[in-house]
Write a structure and sequence with these properties.
2 copies of one chain form a homodimer.
Chain A: H1 11-14, H2 18-24, H3 26-29, E1 32-33, E2 43-44, H4 50-57, H5 63-72, E3 73-76, E4 80-84, E5 90-93, H6 95-105, H7 112-115, E6 117-118, E7 126-127, E8 133-141, H8 143-149, H9 156-178, E9 181-187, E10 192-201, E11 203-209, H10 212-215, H11 219-222, E12 234-240, E13 243-244, E14 263-268, H12 279-308, H13 312-340, H14 342-361, H15 363-369, H16 372-392, H17 399-413, H18 430-437, H19 445-463, H20 468-474, H21 479-488, H22 495-511, H23 515-557, E15 562-563, E16 570-575, E17 579-581, E18 584-586, E19 589-591, H24 592-601, H25 612-616, E20 626-631, E21 643-645, E22 651-658, E23 676-680, H26 681-691, H27 695-702
Antiparallel strand pairs in A: 1-15, 2-16, 3-4, 3-8, 4-5, 5-12, 6-11, 7-11, 8-10, 9-10, 11-12, 12-13, 14-16, 14-21, 17-18, 19-20, 20-23, 21-22, 22-23
Chain lengths: 718, 718
């Protein structure tokens, strides 16, 4: 559902299930893209941009080159990317991708988000409570099997059910036979369906993270901007059977980094794009999705601020979510600005008109495809009516309260045939869902209560006291009071209680006297009702129409295209290159000098202060060391933590952001100023050696002689 | 004439007479301004912004405070500002204001623009060839006398002549009686006329200038932008009767500078603004002035590039003009962008509609003023027709060739009564004009020839070979050939030849066989004809209408207003403050760290390389020293070199630019992002002491004990 597009690095903050949802809803987001000139495209590894690479750069990657890069690429299932960077299981990502886990490892006494962490020995590496990493092992085209399930006689609802049934069967079969995580992913609006099999890792231990002030230097103001000075890096080690995994496919480290104008690649997991949404869909986004979404996020940020203001511990608890929402807000505002720009909308209208004219010229295409756009236009009229009820009749705000609803739904869904289940509950999706439902991560009840109360009060403000949802959930009471009661006695903080409910099934849940489960039971029918209405009256129609448009695009423009992003592995490419900015030029890279300039320019005021260790060791640093750099590679949220590699497949940096000009990239790519921002490999090594007393880790990354210290650890087996 | 508005720091490059013209044409540019909230306004010293200062800052400047600042402020007549900063005649301005003189002091062997200069002794200070400085001594309201000359029975042409006659008489009388330079300046569209008397200095010697790469760091790309890292400073010493002038009113130096959020003032000479042009006038600008102006400048830059490419000496000769035109182009493009922004034009339309509605509501005002706008609208129709002929039937491109035309016109004009002369030739204006006509500055004939040929070829391209101007000037020949012949034998490079012609009067000029004078004689009648048509059919009508609008504005909005800029002394005020930029915040100041960041970010590539001395002495610098800073003070071209002072009237910096967001300030001031960019006082002292081995000069600026070295010089008398 398009309404679920959020920058994927913020999914933790918005809901624990959003990644799952994003995957489940990919049927609707997967509008296929036709690349223009320029370094455009988030290409699947089954269809890499060989033509563009050869024509523009004279580069022809071998299959081995592609396989190696794919197998070194890691998906962080809380919404980011990463890569193996050593033969002993080191995985590098961003601090802000790791920060959800860092927060869950933290306590009032130890704040790893704020203070960072370095494990001097393997024994001191800290296990992540609920981090799942995926590595894409294989891709199999299952289009014909999925499409064969849909018979011409079926109406849209029956077709949707048949499609879901086929997908679920393929996934289950694959899971059973390979034990690999198995996802069927619709691409090109259902023009193709691909079975992706992932190796899954859940024993992932923290090795290094800098303090947040180094990683997220410049805070929310500098977020999504460039020039930038962030050491947004975290390093984990992946274990299997209690020992570091032998990661054969890892990226060799190149401390020199990439030069200006050098060709680079980004391999990662862009969350979602809407480049080929129809104009009708974009108008709904412009008129409803963004203004409402922005209003909601602002309200929730205000609630978080109230909570943070209560004290330092409250501030610590709320910090991760605050980052996530500020990040989302800035992205939304950039995207919303794009949609309100008449030039962008005119371009979209012209593209669509040209496409439709091309289709109309061919009698066969015309008969087959030309009705699709008006079908979507009509469905969008209904979408606009359902938009608010679907959005506001939910458990929102609190990820913990959302667990209660998920438990209530879980026990009902697992009894149904796969094809009839709600999104996220398909058989093959259950292991990942259980992993989240049974996470031992700490729960901050007061914070969760405040957020749920704020969200329900918001729904009440939206619909008024006499709305049936409000009446059913709140009665005549204030949201704060209802939620307070629901939280007062809940035992769901105990993982065993959650486990017992799941295992106890429908009767256990129906008979539960847990106050939060009781609240969730009241909400559940409304969520189901709205989901059904949205599915029947909007999604199924648009899926069918979208498939037609997808096929029409293949017919009209050929197969040298890439699909919209779906949080699956993609290959982007581009050059390290500055761009016109603010009346002048932004450089291709920044240096540590710039960090100290910005800090002193703001008289060391937050969020522009440098951490103490930077000040203390400034004279030891070569300040001309590159810190961040930009390239034209086409990325979006979810690519956070993606490795940047050179022609030799060597690691030269890690993506952590896009510039402000890139936000409109959700709808259209333009390489004039759209840039991906990365941490430079030299900055990481310099920081480890000079600032963090971590020469052994730097040596391991650079592939120098295995440091002596590993011999002293007892945990690892190497 | 509005067509002559150019950023005043570039006047040297465009024409030697443009400052004079800007002054002469002030009748037409002087639309009065009504300040909004915010730190808006370029206020005359006779009507300082006391109300705003008191209300917004609780600051009440005394008359003494105002007089002191005014008398310390210096106008650089080639188009900039400056201030006395020592009791021994030191005047500080920008390198780019000084660069015209620096270039004239230079030779193929010694390039002071590029390499900078420091006079270790007074004896080694270098005299500027043709620099005139002015200090505003007094302001006298002569409105009633000027307006009394215009009788109700007069038509517009007679009224214009009567007005000019009265102005000329007042100026001449004042000059004769005081020997001070005397200019009558129309303000508020002729709502007021003021007699300004200036003390004039022409013995102005260079003391210090850094190398251009330090002064103009970042070159054209960084020009008109911020954050910035420029040491755009030059220091002269003013002499009278062979000795340094005892400058009683000088600004005390404050090396600490101004803090963020501190109130500061800028006292300088903004060239021109068009804030209250009518919509009809702005539309002519948008449709003709800017697109044509931008095309001309681009063409001339291409010609300069061809010349520069011939060798390093040619590049040196062309450098000043190239800077001037690039500077103009960037300003034009920013202003043009503003005019094409529908939001800006809508705002202007609304303001005008509101103003006219207010006038229409009052019967008396309605009868008196309401016809003025439609009179201007009608005149603008004619203006559009005359625009190109007036612009392209000229001696353009070459300042040297323009001298020939000025000589031809001079001998004719001085015989006429003052009121009948062309602008720039009024009796009181002659001393300044003679100073320019008889300048001993070097002339680069090959460069001047190329530029005149390019401009005449451009006119020919514009009008075609059969145009009467083209036929008269070029016959059937190529512009290059005609100009080559005109330059081949000219003797006008010799100041004595020019002098002889001026003194020989009309017969000497008529009988001159000088080839360039001959060419100028052919052009002269066309210039006169176009001037007359423009004056009769546009300017006189718009002056009369403008006066009405000016009076209407006083009536409707009161007297707490400031007039549009006219290259006369103005007081601006504001706070030191960053602003939202590029999705984040621009800091209030930059540091030397930032200079090294930008240099290293671009791998020391031009124009982002730092001068060698900066690299060599980097470790001696405290890199956290502030380098540039921004404030909300309202400025525009011509303010270059203006001192920034604090509440105590102390020097805390020198204005050298506006940011890219300020370019639209020609039409409208908005303090959200409009910022004036200045060099910080600390940067100047640090540079002098640490980089330029000039501790004695730093001591003199900081008012420390007179350094011993002065005792060793023989020239000065102190």
């Amino acid at each position: 559902m398009r309404g679920h597009r959020v920058p994927l690095t913020v999914t933790v903050a918005l809901s624990r299930r959003l990644v799952v949802r994003a995957l489940a809803c990919a049927v609707l987001v997967g509008w296929g893209g036709v690349p223009g000139a320029a370094d455009e495209g988030m290409w699947t590894f089954d269809n890499p941009p060989l033509k563009a690479l050869k024509e523009r750069y004279g580069f022809v990657p071998t299959q081995q080159w592609l396989d190696h890069l794919r197998l070194a690429s890691v998906r962080f299932n809380d919404g980011g990317s990463g890569a193996f960077v050593s033969p002993d299981g080191l995985v590098l990502t961003n601090h802000h991708v790791a920060s959800g886990q860092l927060q869950k490892m933290s306590s009032p006494k130890k704040d790893y988000v704020k203070d960072g962490f370095y494990a001097k020995t393997r024994a001191s590496e800290i296990k992540s409570p609920d981090l799942e990493l995926n590595v894409l092992q294989s891709m199999e085209n299952v289009t014909s099997r999925v499409q064969a399930a849909v018979k011409p006689v079926m109406d849209e609802a029956a077709a949707a059910e048949a499609r879901r049934g086929a997908i679920a069967a393929i996934e289950k079969e694959s899971l059973d036979s390979t034990s690999l995580r198995s996802d069927v992913v619709p691409l090109y609006q259902g023009g193709e369906y691909w079975l992706h099999r992932y190796k899954k890792y859940t024993d992932v231990r923290l090795v290094f993270a800098p303090e947040k002030q180094a990683a997220f230097y410049g805070g929310d103001p500098d977020n999504f901007t460039y020039p930038r000075y962030d050491l947004d890096v975290a390093i984990f080690r992946v274990y299997e059977n209690g020992a570091p995994v032998k990661s054969r496919d890892y990226l060799k480290w190149n401390t020199k980094g990439a030069a200006e104008d050098e060709l680079v690649f980004v391999s990662g997991h862009p969350g979602s794009t809407d480049r080929l949404n129809t104009v009708a869909q974009l108008e709904t986004d412009r008129d409803l999705y963004y203004p409402i979404g922005i209003k909601v996020v602002k309200r929730r940020l205000a609630a978080l601020k109230r909570y943070s203001d209560q004290g330092p511990e409250q501030a610590r608890q709320a910090e991760g979510m605050t980052f996530g929402l500020e990040n989302a807000l800035k992205a939304y505002e950039g995207e919303y600005r794009g949609l309100r720009d008449p030039q962008l909308m005119d371009k979209k209208k012209k593209e669509e008109a040209d496409f439709r004219a091309l289709v109309a010229k061919n009698a066969e295409w015309n008969a087959e495809y030309s009705g699709a756009w008006s079908a979507i236009e009509k469905a969008e009229v209904r979408h606009r009516e359902l938009f608010k009820p679907e959005r506001f009749r939910q458990i929102r705000g609190s990820g913990f309260a959302a667990l209660a609803l998920e438990i209530v739904q879980y026990v009902a869904e697992v009894k149904k045939p796969d094809a009839e289940r709600l999104p996220g509950f398909r058989e093959a999706q259950l292991p990942a869902l259980q992993f989240q439902l049974l996470s031992p991560a700490p729960v901050y009840l007061a914070l969760e209560e405040l957020l749920l109360a704020d969200a329900l009060q918001e729904s009440s403000d939206e619909f008024g006291a006499h709305d049936e949802f409000i009446t059913a959930v709140l009665g005549q009471r204030l949201a704060a009071d209802v939620v307070h009661d629901a939280f007062k006695d809940t035992k769901l903080t105990d993982v065993n209680v959650r486990k017992a409910l799941i295992e106890g099934g429908e009767s256990a849940v129906a008979n539960s006297t847990d106050s939060l489960i009781a609240l969730a039971r009241k909400v559940d029918p409304f969520v189901r009702q709205m989901h059904k209405m949205m599915e029947d009256q909007v999604e199924n129609i648009e899926t069918a129409a979208g498939e037609k448009i997808g096929r029409a695009r293949f017919a009209a423009y050929g197969r040298d295209v890439y699909p919209d992003a779906t949080f699956t592995l993609r290959l982007s490419f581009g050059t390290v290159k500055g761009y016109p900015m603010n009346g002048t030029k932004a450089p291709a890279k920044t240096t540590f000098y710039g960090l100290f300039d910005r800090a002193n320019s703001f008289d060391m005021k937050e969020p522009f202060n440098v951490p103490d260790r930077f000040q203390q060791r400034r004279r030891l640093l070569d300040l001309s060391t590159p810190l961040n750099f930009v390239s034209t590679a086409d990325i979006i949220g979810g690519n956070s933590g993606s490795p940047v590699v050179n022609r030799s497949g060597e690691f030269v940096g890690v993506i952590f952001d896009g510039n402000i000009e890139s936000l409109v990239g959700r709808f259209v790519y333009d390489d004039t100023a759209n840039r991906a921002v990365a941490v430079h490999s030299a900055a990481i090594i310099t920081a480890l050696r000079t600032l963090y007393d971590a020469p052994a880790l730097a040596n391991e990354l650079e592939g120098r002689a295995v440091p002596a210290r590993t011999a002293t650890t007892g945990t690892g087996k190497n």
